[in-house]
Amino acid sequence: MDIKNEERRITDPVMGKPNLEVFAKTLEELAAADRDLVVVTSDSRGSGKLGPFGENFPAQIVETGIAEQNLVGMSAGLASCGKKVFAVSPACFLTARALEQIKNDVAYSDQPVKLIGISAGVSYGALGSTHHSLHDFAVLRTIHNLTIVAPADKFETEESVKWAYGYEHPVYIRFGKKAMPVLHDNNSGFVYGKGIEVRGGNDLAIIATGECVAPALGASLKLEKEKGIKARVISMHTLKPLDMKILFRAARECDGMITVEEHSVYGGLGEACASGLLANGYSLPFKILGIPDEYTVTGSQSEIFTHYGLSPGGIAAAAIKLLKTN
Amino acid sequence: MSLSMDDLRIKSVEYRKKLLKYIKLAGAGHTGGSLSCIDILNVLYNNILNISPELPDKPDRDRYIQSKGHSVEALYVVLADLGFFPEHDLETLCRYGSHYVGHPTRKVKGIEHNTGALGHGLSVSTGIAMAAKMDGNKYKVYTLVGDGELTEGSNWEAALTASHYKLDNLTAIVDYNHLQITGLTMEVCNTDPLEDKFLAFGWHVENISGHDLEEMNRFFREVPLSVGKPTCIIAHTVKGKGVSYMENKKRWHHGVPDDEQFNMAMEELDSSLKFPE
After folding, report:
1. B 3-22 residues with CB below 8 A of A?
2. Does domain A3-12+189-325 have CATH number 3.40.50.920?
3. Is the distance from CB of B221 to CB of B171 less than 8 angstroms?
4. Tens place of pLDDT for every residue, chain A, 326 residues?
């Protein structure tokens, strides 16, 4: 694909859909074939785009009301009886209010609940920090027996949800609500725990996750077009377990590495990559892009991205600086 | 097969002796709470629950979730007695590498869910009860909560939901022993009146003695006591029950008896089985 087509791919709004909508559609497809698939929500079926699911599968949706602790505890109970449970709640509440239930009732008890954090990161940008989840990767990474996934586009979403449905252990998947460009051709080839190279290049590696993969790809195109810099882009959809192989290969083949995430710069993708590289003897110019440790600026998701340098331009500028100064 | 009241009475004393033995051997354990709930577990496991050590995962089994997980020693001795695992496994209680840790885990055969942090069992049990209703299964779900534990707000989220969904296959038994680690529950942060609270949440509530084996046997068999409502059985108990120097003493929440205290407890428990001369 030439660069113009690549650019069109990430800017054409018609091609893209919110991952959340793709998730809800995928669930309907799965639920039609399996009456044991149960969605549990905390007054969040609207936010989770699950209205049609509720109408089409009323016997397969359980409402707990605004009670995230109970949402997760009940989900564990349902899962212990063979129900294939998707516990759907805004990521900010699910992974903070119900953290102990996630730790004990789901992960420690090994109940195969699929925890779905909706409107994650700064999707609810202007609503303020109560509604942001910039901590979820960090806290959940420390919990044993919990896989963490942040799909980038509709293919990664559909494939990861179908994989999670069949996986017999706990999984956390987070989705944003903004329409995402389609980053892959017919499928993403999603394999749990294996990052995907979205664009090739050996000057720099940009490791991104979730809704930051699209701007990372934009940055890569910009860097090539404007500066002749070839930046590899990897969608690291699985935060845990982290794909060390793809990371080490990027460290060997590229002159620098930038990680990009819609999360605090503490404890997320960036620090996971940094510790993995350092502990295994890799050393290269390295930069973590994410939300800094401060009161997050008010604005829409894209305004917040731009403010903190997570836009294509911001990522490209960080890349140029990194390569120049090293 | 049900045990007679005389057999249950003997079991209660044996269980008390055993749980004290293993707490002493481990040098750790939740003594007072285990003694307050052991009669409840005795009746449930010997006469009520449809479970089998040969088929511990059979889908139609009744479920018991011990929300007050710290009283795990009571649960361990009952499960061992029923044949879920050899009793001598309990010699490893709290030892390095043992599955028999100080709170229930599914690594021990017969235990349904990992508990220990308080305020979790009722939600999990509500989910199990809901799964049974969805599938038209007839099994029942019992969970044991502490009165001190009921300050955890998550219990009341679950209480609302269980009532909203008319989960009459769910029974919460409150080990109402009035004491928690700091002191009297009514002084730490009063959870009374429990009956009014559960009634207000739409539950059927009964007050019974948590040490009267016959009364528990009757009530546990009869649940649901109101069609379309979850049942709360407030089982009035005495923390440290059966060992007089431990009864109603907060220091026996997790006190471990020394040799002399242990021997005194054994003598008292043995003598409780003798008929008065």
Report:
1. none
2. yes
3. no
4. 688 888 877 776 556 789 999 999 999 999 999 999 999 999 999 888 999 999 999 999 999 999 999 999 999 999 999 999 999 999 999 999 999 999 999 999 999 999 999 999 999 999 999 999 999 999 999 999 999 999 999 999 999 999 999 999 999 999 999 999 999 988 889 999 999 999 999 999 999 999 999 999 999 999 999 999 999 999 999 999 999 999 999 999 999 999 999 999 999 999 999 999 999 999 999 999 999 999 999 999 999 999 999 999 999 999 999 999 87
The tokens describing A257, both together, are 């590495």
Shared fold status for A3-12+189-325 and A17-180: yes
What residue segments make up the domains of chain A, in order of their start? Answer: 3-12+189-325, 17-180
CATH code linked to domain A17-180: 3.40.50.970
**Residue A36 burial by Cβ neighbours in a 10 Å radius (0-12, 13-18, 19+):** middle
Residues of A in contact with B120 (CB under 8 A): 73, 100-101, 104-105
B5-272: CATH number: 3.40.50.970
Alpha-carbon distance of A123 to B260, in angstroms, equals 64
Please tell me if residue A255 touches chain B, with a CB cutoff of 8 Å: no
Closest by CA to B138, choosing from B222, B228, B62, B53, is: B62
Of the candidates A69, A75, A110, which has its C-beta nearest B127's C-beta?
A75
Does B224 touch chain A if contact means CB atoms closer than 8 Å? no
